Amino acid sequence: MTTAEFPEIVWAWTLVQVLGLAAALATRLNLGGRSQAVLQAAFLGLLGLVGATAMISFRLNTAAGLICGTTLAVMAIAVICDFRGLRSPA
């Protein structure tokens, strides 16, 4: 079974990746905001979903596994790193 035979799988995996990166960005931009807890919960759920997608992709021996793994790493780094120190003080 290849993913080329099932375009729905490709679209679903793409949607998971985009939602995961969007959740990481939204979580990062909303630090200290009113919806921080909700966004963090959504991020953690999508982090698990991206991780599961990566494991399934590697199990099926598809090239999508590398993309899913990269998305997982970018999500983790984007939320963990503190970019506030890069700005010059006002």
Explain how this protein is built.
Helix content is 71%, strand content 0%. With 90 residues, the chain is mostly helical. It has a domain at 33-78. It is elongated and about 45 Å long. The mean pLDDT is 84.
Q: What is the gyration radius calculated from CA atoms?
A: 15 Å
The proportion of residues forming helix, as a percent range, comes to over 70%
Largest beta-sheet characterization: none
Query: What is the subunit organization of this protein?
Result: single chain
Distance from N terminus to C terminus (CA atoms, Å) equals 57 Å
- Treating each run of at least 4 consecutive H or I residues as one helix, how many helices? 3
Question: Which strand-content bin applies to the residues?
Answer: under 5%
Q: Count the strands?
A: 0
- Which residues form runs of ≥5 with pLDDT under 50? none
Which structural category fits the helices and strands? Answer: mainly alpha
> Order of helices and strands, N to C?
HHH
The 3D shape can be described as elongated
If you average the pLDDT, what whole number results? 84
Blueprint (SSEs and pairs):
Layout: H1 7-29, H2 36-59, H3 64-80
Helix pairs in contact: 1-2, 1-3, 2-3
